[in-house]
């Protein structure tokens, strides 16, 4: 399971690099921070249960943030 966190770190790094190439600086910085966090957590040797609970927590926070941004920050399209 720890390897999967390092894989998540790799893919978030790739997404961050593509965002940098597309001149989306804030988006790229967000994904670079996530990549560093995933790689760091991947080397901490937690139990599989801990990794799964951390991933669920990450998903809840990211979905709540995405929902908040799309509802309150993007504005009404009409």
User: Low-confidence spans: pLDDT under 50, at least 5 residues?
Assistant: none
Element-level helix/strand string: HHH
The helix content is over 70%
Assign an overall shape. Answer: flat
Number of helices: 3
Q: Give the N-to-C terminal Cα separation.
A: 45 Å
Average residue-wise pLDDT:
94
- Per DSSP E runs of 2 or more residues, the count of β-strands stands at 0
Structural class: mainly alpha
Q: How much is the radius of gyration in Å?
A: 15 Å
β-strand percent reads under 5%
Task: Characterize the main sheet.
Answer: none
Topology:
Blueprint: H1 2-21, H2 25-42, H3 48-73
Notes on the structure:
The protein is an all-alpha fold and 78 residues long. Helices cover 82% and strands 0% of the residues. It has helices at 2-21, 25-42, 48-73. Helix 1 (2-21) runs antiparallel to helix 2. The longest helix has 26 residues, at 48-73. The mean pLDDT is 94.
Salient structural properties:
flat, 82% helix, 78 residues, single chain
Structure summarized in a few sentences:
The protein has 78 residues and is mostly helical.
